[in-house]
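Hi all, long-time lurker, first post. I run a small reading group and we've been trying to get comfortable going from sequence to structure in the token notation. Rather than ask abstract questions, I figured I'd post a concrete chain and ask someone more experienced to write out its structure so we can walk through it together at our next meeting. Sequence below, copied exactly:
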Amino acid sequence: MRLFTLALAALLALPMLASAAPDVPAPPPDLVDYVTKKDDSFSWKLVDKKDSDSGTVYEIDLISQTWHDIKWDHKLQVFVPKGAKPQATMVLWNQGGKPNATSGILGLALADKIKAPVAFLYGVPKQPLFGGKTEDALIAETFVKYLDTKDGSWPLLFPMVKSVVKGMDALQAFAKEEWKFEVKSFVITGASKRGWTTWLTAATGDKRVKAIAPLVIDTLNIPVQMKNQLAAFGKPSQMIHDYVERKLVPIPDTAEAKKLWQMIDPYVYREKLTVPKLILNGTNDPYWPLDALNSYWDELKGDKWILYVPNAGHDLREADKDGKKELLPARAVNTLAAFCYCQIFDKPMPTLTWKYVQKPAGVDFSITPNGTMKGQRAWIAESDTRDFRKATWKSETLSEVKGGAVVIGGPVSVDMKFNRPQKNLAAVMVETEFEVDHLKFNLSSQLRILEAKQ
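-- Answer (accepted) --
Happy to help. Here is the structure in token form:
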């Protein structure tokens, strides 16, 4: 049975009523203290330059810091597509590991779509450490060390952030030396714990951070998210078992543990996170409850956009009806490229506003696009519990522009009703396809989960 009814109308988008927000306490100073602490081990050196038909790739060796007597060394690549010129703003993608074929393809593809240089910083974090620990096991180890020592420099996210800050330092120096050009600002991006690093880099207040695009780190407002996981999955996700095994989740009822989560939760820094932000999530990510974003979205400051990639997990690669995944996450890359392009070239980014109104039979929904639009579709998934990780998302076209695009602005909205399912639960969202210059991409509304009819 169709889960929604649709009507088009020229209506003013009604603003959501804002309630008076309580005073937000200042975040702990430990992050900023660590990142801004002087460290004479910082250095960088251009070690390679390769030209090809696609463009030029520079490779830089970087030492970002010495953390607890461990020197953090990184590779830093700069991808310059054929015919592109340096710009005052540069994209800086942070990730783990070392340069490889996949990162090279992604770096050049992103730079080519944006028509501007893009930098990739590797080795965030330095690993393995402490007996071969990597990734979440390594982060959990450093959290335990903080709880044991009360030393605010221990949480691994802090040197990860400093890596990005020093990456910006190196790129500015490189641009002056190699291109005789001044890079003034950056769009910071990265996935998973590197998305976490992206949020916290902006939280330092570094004025060079012009915008951020964190991918698949749908965990802001951590204490609430831990409760969300229990409600959705019945227990914490297996994907965070490293924190559970170290007794970090559930969050211990101690002052030190509560401070730790305040130190590393981007939500705590939300008053400072006013730069434009694009959040990219997969609808089937095994880490997070489906509606995790709803626990923090309304309290984010400044311009903000969402893309949910349907039928995609933590890698943002969409799966078809047979479960086969695409090679590269095309939907995510296209939207990320458009966002970065708008930030670099000071183009207006299309916007979406929406409103859900809860009703006994379902929800009334209105969405207002603003920009050059190609079409809209509703996405729907069903599940017998609040765990939608294995659900299949199906779409239904709401509108489509043939042979071009149409500029939408002002009060024109799409209004519809999402009806409650006869049984089980349903999740719904609306996606809009936009076009900016040469780029086509998608943006999403928030998700809602509908309970079955009583």
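A couple of things your group might point at:
The domain at 29-350 is CATH 3.40.50.1820 (Rossmann fold).
The first strand starts at residue 4 and ends at 10.
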